[in-house]
# Entry
Amino acid sequence: MSKIALITGITGQDGSYLAEQLLDEDYEVYGLYRRSSLPHFERIEEFKDKIKLIEGDITDVGSLIRALKESEPTEIYNLAAQSFVGTSWTQPINTMNTTGLSMLNLLEAIRLSDIETRVLQASSSEMFGKVVETPQNENTPFYPRSPYGVAKVAAYWISVNYRESYGMFISNCIAFNHESPRRGIEFVTRKISNGVANIALGKSDRLELGNLESKRDWGYAPDYTRAMHLILQQSKADDYVAATGETHSVREFLDRAFKVAGIDSWDKYVIINQKYFRPAEVDLLTGDASKLRNIGWKPSISFDDLVKIMVDYDMQILSKDGLE
Ligand code: NAP
Ligand code: F7E
# Structure
């Protein structure tokens, strides 16, 4: 049987890597993208002609029914979300609709369309929030600390409920932070790699950040989209944590990034600005991905290499007068 994937959030970091990987595996790839006043296909530009793009919005159930009819997917990857935790306090209702309720839209659209398909929900380590145990695994209770985290918990539980209620094939990839040169510029890793590259090239002399002490389990995004695909190839729908098992502070990321750029002492460049602190912080995340490792997954890129990949990339594009 031919494999057909529908990816929501195709224009995002993960959507772009997943689409490339599935094209390499001879999938027919459809992607749901939303209309914007200017085109925003940078991340998929190089292989856009190989993807079938469908315009629609994840909060609009009619869009989803249309996308299902047009693509008849064997696998659906639900990656669309308002994914920036900071914005979830300034746009909490939009975040709840886009990141939480939209999963219910998608599941209802599948039921109403009466199609047989497998569904992957991009769940998040932000569901663990104020962690009740370390490391966190599939059985760790949730304690979300942001409207984003709460919305992801809602999407997670509705996916479990539809799996149990209707026998639908729905799996969760509970992904810890994953980064890459395609990461959005407001996330701390990319903000640092871009800021450090600007400083190293003499284009800037300051980098404003918030809490340097929070710790994250940072991995490389293409490893996590491989995990999402692997999860949907299993004989039974289930939930899996994807993580490296290592944790590092924002300060360590910053220190390493400056070193990669050849700057040993960075105090004079970094300014702490209260506006980047969050109303409630997630202090520490470390994932236990044993269950996913048992089905053949492992991360391929170390923390040091991840920082280097991102800083080198930003140095290269900024040397060519790209992103500022
Ligand atoms: P991202 O780069 O922010 O991409 C999000 C995607 O969702 C974009 O394509 C965006 O479209 C799309 N989108 C947003 N609102 C939409 C709407 N109303 N209708 C249709 N599309 C919409 O995020 P990412 O890092 O690739 O993450 C992918 C998924 O994994 C997200 O669900 C995220 O919450 C989850 N996740 C990410 C991480 C991580 O560390 N990256 C960890 C755990 C879970 P535009 O391009 O038009 O904005
Ligand atoms: O923040 C601290 C900030 O915005 C990481 C999303 O992909 O991963 C991501 O969420 C940490 C936080 O990612 C700045 O306070 C300090 O402690 O890069 P972030 P996130 O909030 O961990 C999870 C798993 C997801 O699911 C999300 O979709 O860095 N921090 N100073 C800062 N953060 C930002 N953004 N900007 C700063 O200036």
